[in-house]
Amino acid sequence: MPMRGNPSRGASTKTGAMASTDFNSTIEERSDSDLSNLFQYIDRDNVHGLNLNVPECAKDIIKPWADREDTTLFADSGVDDQMIIHVPFSETVRIRSVVLKLGRGEYTPRHLKIYANYPNIIDFADAENTKPHFNISLLEGETGAVEYPVRVAAFRSVHSLSLYVGDSVGGDQSRIYFIGFKGDCQSPRKEGTKGIEVPAPNAADASLVERLLQRARGQQTTAR
């Protein structure tokens, strides 16, 4: 008499395959969010901004990945539609993309510039006279968080970013609900060198970088 397969064994195998598929899907989902999200490396206590209606709101838009669509906390610009948000990191990171959730309608900023590795927040005069490491037009009409890939070569060793947004649709005020970053951690920061870890300068920002280097050398001389 021929032997018949065990039905329960087949069902068990099928269930195991489904469980494996669900597990792999979970891993892929985590890989796309938690594992590449740099929130844990942001020095949130030292996040600050320029020309914010409420200065303390700069920290409010640095949220966990799960809260990226939250609209209860936000930052508005102050006297006009421009603002700069300075985001330091606790460790050196490599940035692969920037994730933004912006205000709607007339509050939507349409332009973003990012400056990497300035030890102190640059002011608006410096921003206008310095070539950014990232300079793009932002999408309009988006209601959710949008990911903007960056040129990794320009952000491979980052310990701080200054994000300059402006040119809102209404022309009077810009709003940001969420700023996040994807990438990976490179190494712990070295406190003694954080003032001079800057990307290769362009001709347009050479004068500013030189001032920062001179300041760093002066601090080292004083320490001796």
Features:
alpha+beta; 224 residues; globular; eight-stranded antiparallel sheet; 4 helices; single chain; disordered N terminus; disordered C terminus
What Rg do the Cα atoms give? 23 Å
User: Count of helical segments?
Assistant: 4
Q: Spans with pLDDT under 50 lasting ≥5 residues?
A: 1-5, 11-31, 192-209, 219-224
Strand content: 25-35%
Q: Averaging pLDDT over every residue, what do you get?
A: 79
> What percent of residues adopt helix (DSSP H or I)?
10-25%
Main beta-sheet annotation: 8 strands, antiparallel
Query: Would you count the extended β strands for me?
Result: 8
Please tell me about this protein's structure.
This protein is of the alpha+beta class and 224 residues long. Helices cover 24% and strands 29% of the residues. It has four helices and eight strands; from the N terminus they run αβαβββαββββα. It has helices at residues 7-32, 57-60, 124-129, 206-223; strands at 48-50, 75-76, 83-102, 109-116, 134-137, 146-149, 158-168, 175-188. Strands 1, 2, 3, 4, 5, 6, 7 and 8 form an eight-stranded antiparallel sheet that branches. It is globular.
What's the gist of this structure?
The chain is an alpha+beta fold and 224 residues long.
Indicate the topology.
Elements: H1 7-32, E1 48-50, H2 57-60, E2 75-76, E3 83-102, E4 109-116, H3 124-129, E5 134-137, E6 146-149, E7 158-168, E8 175-188, H4 206-223
